[in-house]
Structure formats: structure tokens, C-alpha cells
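A common beginner's mistake is to predict each chain separately and then try to dock the pieces by hand. The better habit, illustrated here, is to supply every component at once so that their relative placement is modeled jointly.
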Amino acid sequence: MTSLPAPGGKKLGLVIDLDTCVGCHACATNCKEWNTGGHMAPLTDTNPYGGHQDGVWFNRVHTYEVSDAGAATPESRTLHFPRSCLHCEQPACVTVCPTGASYKRAGDGIVLVDESKCIGCKLCSWACPYGAREYDVTEGVMKKCTLCIDRIYNENLEERDRVPACVATCPTGARHFGDLGDPQSDVSALVRARGGTDLLPELGYAPINKYLPPRSKSGGGSIPPAEAPAPKAGVWALIDRVLTR
Amino acid sequence: MNPAFSVIFFTTASGAGYGLLIVAGVLSILGELPPDTPFAVATMGIALAAVTAGLLASTFHLGHPERAWRALSQWRSSWLSREGVMAIATYIPALGFGGSWILPGLVPGPRGAWATAMIVCALTTVFTTAMIYRSLKPIPQWYNGWVVANYLLLGPMSGAVILSALVTTASGTNFVLAALVVSFICGAWARKSAYWRTMEQTGLPDAGSALGLPGQRVRSVEWPHTERNYLLKEMGFAIGRKHAEKLRRFSVVTAFIAPLALTVGAAFLTHSWAILATWIAAFSAVTGVVVERWLFFAEAQHSVTLYYKGSAD
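With all components supplied together, the output reads:
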């Protein structure tokens, strides 16, 4: 049923720290590695070793130069930005689906595709503002992030491994997984502490996943000189004074 | 948005087909429809062929056309599903109307009732088609109040121009129909021009907002991939905007100006010249609507392109 379930208490999702992400693409790589054998398998690649290679990925890492548009002399910074399904509370990708293949789970809020019902009309990918859904030309169905439902509930894994593959592999701890519907959870506390934001909130999709903005640079953002200034006291100061004379 | 051939063919062909049914139904209620059988067969044949070809074409781009029946199930939430249901439902009054027109006495009930049901169903189908696009928030060129009016005017306009050619061929100029053609063309022209003017001021949200950093200037330094992926092939189409101005002018001339002049002119011509003029008007209008529909897709921008383009310069 593509009508949305009544809002539940549990909202599983990710919190991504744009301050610590170093853009290594490990999350995207491990996502591909796990999910090509997981719930939505395979994540087909076409022409992988030739020109014009293409393929299905659930997670893509962009890199930007970001600067304050309002400042007279804008300080700029490099920003790495992993983009994946945000498991929205108002997922139009689900409600536009004509077949009932797309659905949002009432129990934990995860948005999934039942591939056996998907006709491959691609309308859900048009309805997603974030480009989270990618069409598999070989299988003729739409594919998307499952929040690793085959890991997070997997009793064959050790408890510490029951997190999405992207979270498990992140070498800088920039990705956090938890219940954003529970105000007491670690991820909710992190969002409060760091001012986590929604992507494109004006479109009204109410994403579950949150992004933590980069912290301001130390020293107010100004770049310190590479060479130390002349010392004011000590032997070097004395030599400096003698030679300056 | 990538202007896929199947979708453009589907929306223009089925729009013209449903438009033909709507205008034929209106003329029938007004008592202006010539009764002769070959004309009736041709009109209903063209209308149902256009509708059916359009519906079949819309299944060509599916990954699993054999599962297309499933698309009728989610009418509670999905405009695409509602369109499928309405498209099939419209066959019932259309066949009832056609039957009672071509072979009076074949179908029970008054023809006026069939005509009314057919007009309501066909209009609803065109409305649901428009709503598929109008409800997509990531695409500002579609998510606005102009889209439904454009579809509801352009479909009947193409249908009216085709019916005008058929009626003129069968029995000469019909002034009620000519007045309908002129009204639909003027209405569609006015709305489409207003839509295009509004679109000059319409664009995507701020790229900073797409990254959760409103107010920040964003320059894309590196994409996640080196080749064009599904998202860019499907939603990153820019050729339409490059040639938009020329194509809009071509569309205005072929869809509106030429059919308007030819329809008005045909009223003053001898029968054989009027036939020629109205058929040229019909082909011109259909060509213009195809170009208009191509632009409707090609000019539409999807918010996912913000992640690839960054802030506008």
C-alpha cells in the first residue's frame, strides 16, 4: 500500500557529520559491497571496465567549495557531502508509486521497494528531490538504500555490527545511526548539540536523516601566517634589534 | 527532465484522443454532430486509436510492462494509478456513445447520457495526467497551478481542431465547432504564454539549502562519479533550455497562430479548399503540441541537479 502509515514512534535514520567527513568514499564503497549481496541485490554495473560505465549506488559522495555568500571577503572551505536516502516522513516517492511496490514501514520508518511489484516506471525517482533512487537498467526495477535492514536486525551479526554498512566502515566516525524518533537517543542528542539540519526543508518532505554543519574554523576563520612573526623578547629579539639598526 | 519519446507521444496522442471525445460529446449534446456513419466511424476510430496508442506507448518505457496491471491498484494515493483507472473507465462511455451514434438502437439509453458520461470521464483522465506532473515538488516548472489548465485546454484544443477537419470533410464548415476551436486555441494560447512568462521567474531552490547550509554559496568541485549516471541521464537535460526561445516561437506559430488563421479562413473558402485548410490546421496543431510537450519536459529542472551544479553564477 503506497498510502503512508500513521506516524510511528520509531524513526530510524542517519546523522552525518559534515565537519568530520573527509570524503574518502569508504561509506559508498562498503554500501555497494554489502548491498550488492543484500536485500536489494544486485547493484548492477553496466560496462564497468570500459568507457561510459554506469551502475546503481545507494550512496554518493560529492565534494564542494562552500563559502559564506553574505561576507565581503568570503572564507571558503572544502565540504564532502555523502548523499543517500533520507527515509523522509513525507516520502512522495512512496505515494506516487502506482503499484504498491514502494512503501514506508510503520514500525521503524524505513522506506523500501518491493522489487517483485515494481514496474520500472521511474516516477518515484522523479518524486525524490534528493536523487536517492537509482534505476537498475538490467533488472528493470528501481533500487534504493534499505538502511541495511539485513544488518540492523541481523541476529547472526554481533550486536556492535548491527548498524548500516556505511556507518560500520566510516574511518572518521562521521556517520551515526539511531532512532531519531526518540528524543533521548544519542543521535537525537547529537542533532540538538550540533544544530543538525534538514536538506531542502522548504519542499516539506521532512527527512529523518540529519546533517551536522561544519564547525566554524578556529581563529574566527582567518588563516594564520605561515611564517612566525619576529619575537618580542629573548636572544632572537636582541639579534633582530641589532641587525635592524 | 529527459523528454522520453514514449511519454511525449503518450501525453499528446491520448490528450488529442480524449479531446476529440470531449468535443464530439459536446457537439452531440448541442445537436450539431452530422449523423452520417462513415464520419462517425472515422471520428470514433481516430479518437480511440489515439487514446489506445498513447496508453500502449506509455507502457513501452516500463522496466516490466507485463506487470503494468499492478498500476491500477494504488488509486488512493497515486495520480499515475488514478490516471490508469480513469483511462480504462473512459472506454465504457466512449464505446457506449460511439455505438449509439454509429448504429442507433445498438446501445441502450439516450445518447446524451453516454455523451455526458464520456465528457466527464475524458476530462477527468486528462486532469489525472496533468496531476501526475503537477504534484511533483522537486520540479518547480511542473509544481504550479498552470499545468492542469494547460493540459485541460491543449487536449480539447487538439481534439477540436481534428474534429473540425473531420466535420468539414463530411459536411462543410460548422460554425458552432469553429467557434469552439477558436475559443480553445485562444484559451490555450493565453494560458501557455502566461505559463512561459511565469517560468522565466521560476527556478530551483538555493543549492546551499540542498546541503542543509542555507545562505552558503556552493561550488561543485568533484562529482561522485566520472560518467553520467541514471540521475543525470533522466533529470539533467539542458538542451531544451538552450533552444527554448526558438522552440517556443515555433510552437506558438504551429499550435496556435496557424490553426487559428486556417480555421477562421476556412469559413470563407469553398468546400474543397476548406477541407484542405482544416486538415493543415489539424496537422499543424498536433505538431505544435508535440513541440510544446517536448519543451514541457526539456525545460523542467529537477532539484537533484543542484547537487551537481551547485549555486548559480
